[in-house]
Amino acid sequence: MANNNVNDVAMTWDDEIQNDGEGFRVLPEGEYDFTVTDFTRGRFEGSAKMSACPKAELTITLHDPDGDVTVTENLFLNRKAEWKLCQFFTAIGHRKHGETLRMNWNAVKGAKGRCKVGVRTWTGNDGKEREGNEISAFLEPTETAAPPQGDAAYTQEPLTSVTQPRKWTGGQF
User: Fold this and answer.
1) 137, burial (CB in 10 Å: exposed 0-12, middle 13-18, buried 19+)
2) I need a labelling partner for 138 at 20 to 30 A (CA). Which of 5, 55, 74, 120 fits?
3) How far is it, in rounded angstroms, from Cα 109 to Cα 40?
4) Are 148 and 92 in contact (CB under 8 A)?
5) What's 105's DSSP letter?
6) Chain-centre distance of CA 99, in angstroms?
7) Total Cβ atoms within 10 A of residue 146
8) Strand 30-44 relative to strand 112-123: parallel, antiparallel, unpaired?
């Protein structure tokens, strides 16, 4: 799969460097608008709590008046985590709460929504306390929210659980 991130380029041992980075900022807990800026398909190898499954690795930009912050979010394609997939696709406007949806991953990059953000604290390998942002919930759009972003030609009809048999008429297709 092609990598579209212009900063993700291998360097040689003799390359020159100058980019000091943008620094790292942790947003306070709260609700934020977001944009999905990248999506890659990955694999979760499993754990004691959940079996191996595909995972969606999302790069999400959280929008804040003082400047955007980027977080990474993994969505696991496992029935145990189906609720979070439903939250995500509802937040970006691809489904309504309670509807059945066939996930359209091609329409995820560029999608916009709103989420609840928390602050996670952990101890690094060096023994120092660290903190970073994590998405604790994807929120349903409000009535005034813009239509879903992404593939403008894509529309999703709700799937029905019962398929009606088609009547067969000889000689017709």
Assistant:
1) middle
2) 5
3) 10
4) yes
5) G
6) 19
7) 9
8) antiparallel
Residues 104-117: tens digit of each pLDDT: 999 999 999 999 99
**Cα gap 62→133, rounded to integer Å:** 10
pLDDT of 122 > 70? The answer is: yes
Residue 69 has pLDDT above 50, yes or no: yes
Return the half-sphere exposure (C-beta side, CA atoms, 13 A cut-off) of residue 54.
Answer: 7
Look at the alpha carbons of 98, 76, 148, 156 in this order and tell me if their dihedral is positive or negative: negative
| Integer angstrom CA distances of residue 39 from 21, 75, 111, 165, 170 | 22, 11, 11, 38, 47
Sequence spans of domains, the chain: 30-44+52-139
Q: What is the pLDDT of residue 160?
A: 41
164/96: higher pLDDT: 96
> Residue 90's CB: how many other CB atoms inside 10 A?
20
The whole-angstrom separation of Cα 158 and Cα 48 is 34
The pTM for the full model equals 0.70
**Is it the case that residue 99 has pLDDT exceeding 90?**
yes
Q: Which residue has the higher pLDDT, 168 or 58?
A: 58
Single-letter code of the amino acid located at 62:
L
**Please, are residues 36 and 63 in contact by the beta-carbon 8 Å criterion?**
no
